[in-house]
Each structure stands twice: as structure tokens, then as C-alpha cells.
Amino acid sequence: MKSNYKLIDVDIRKIKSRLILDNKVPNDFISSSGDVYKWLWLPSSDNKNLLEVRNAKHVRSNMHNTLPITEEEHLEFLQKYDSLQRLDFVLQHHDSGEYVGAMYISLTHHGFEIGKYIGNKKFLGKGLAFPISNLFIDFIKKNVVEIEKISAVTKLKNYKNINLNFKLGFKIIKLVEEDSWLMELQ
Predict the structure, then answer these.
(1) What angle do CA 2, 15, 112 make, to 5 degrees?
(2) Neighbouring C-alpha atoms within 13 Å toward the C-beta of 136
(3) Distance CA 134, CA 26 (A)
(4) CA distance to 97, 99, 134, per residue, from 94 (Å)
(5) Could you give the dihedral angle defined by the CA atoms of residues 89, 94, 100 and 103, in that order, rounded to the nearest 10 degrees?
(6) What element of type H or E holds 159?
(7) Which pLDDT band holds residue 98 (cuts at 50, 70, 90)?
(8) By three-state DSSP, how is residue 176 classified?
(9) N or C: more exposed end of the chain, with fewer CB within 10 A?
(10) How do residues 45-65 score in pLDDT, each as one tens digit?
């Protein structure tokens, strides 16, 4: 448990500022069908398109906050984004410009916690979750070396995400929040 206290002492805001200034994002991904996907920093994404995928019913059902996020709430979040200990990226299909979903890492009481979702149903079942998650984790490991451990908190019934986490190398640590597994990747 001592290592969790060490994680909370890590401040990634300056790193985030440098990465945003350099527009450094995870590498593009080319699927087996030849489709190209690229990453955008969340603050430079289109709010309406992002909220559409974030507020999809199948995404909200696996979030701790199951209520839709309003545009006003999202704008308030963006206003304080620079001061938050988190990195957020939106995945976009290159040719169509459609938003696929998002990935982020944020400091919580569990340490640096990863979040991920594919909100656009057109892109579910296309084998994207594992390779894009790997790209994101590699990006974090290479660019934010101060983060030594990545956590994931996943609802017990979110079997797809639990299995994805196992495939990524996460291990179950304990039951938290009465309905979720705390998983860690070291």
C-alpha cells in the first residue's frame, strides 16, 4: 500500500502541458482492414461529437456516473482541464472523421487510473480495443515515466473490459466500491 502514497505525490500537470504544447499523442493505428485511426487531445475535440459517444447508453451503463454529461458540465471541465492530473485523448476514424471513443488516465484515490470506451457503435466488434489500449499504455509508459503503476476500476459485470484488462496484463487486486474490481498493471 505504501506505493499508492507515492503515486499520489506524482504531479503530471507540467508533463501534460509539454505534451499538449508539442501536440504529442499516441501513435496512429491502422486496423487489419486498413482503416486509420488517430488521436486528438480532448480539449481540441469537438464537444458535440465527443459527448455523443461519451453519453451513449452502453458507455454510461459501465461508468460510475451513469448520467449523461451536459455540454455545460463538459465546458466547465475543460475550463479547469490544465489544473487536473489527467491526460485525455479522443480516438477518431481518419477517413470519416467520426469519433470512436476515448482513453484517459487520471489521478484518483486508487492511483493513476485508466479509463477507456468505444462509444460509437459502428466501431464495436472490430478488434480495436486491445491494440488501441496497448498504444495508449505504451504512450503513457514512454512519455509519463513518473507513473509507475496504472490502475483500472471496472464494474463486476463489465466482462468485456475485465477480459481486455487481463489481456493487457492487469491483475485483480481487490473488490472496491461494492461493485467493481481494482486491477493493476505494473
Answers:
(1) 35
(2) 29
(3) 10
(4) 5, 9, 19
(5) -20
(6) helix 159-168
(7) very high
(8) strand
(9) N
(10) 999 999 999 999 999 999 988
Phi-psi map region of 170: left, alpha, beta (phi>0 left; psi -120 to 50 alpha): beta
pTM score: 0.92
Mean pLDDT of 96-108: 97
Q: Is the dihedral of CA 117, 100, 130, 6 positive or negative?
A: negative
Domain 2-145 falls in which CATH fold?
A: Aminopeptidase (3.40.630)
What are the residue ranges spanned by the domains of the chain? Answer: 2-145
Q: With 0-12 CB in 10 A as exposed, 13-18 as middle and 19+ as buried, what is 129?
A: buried
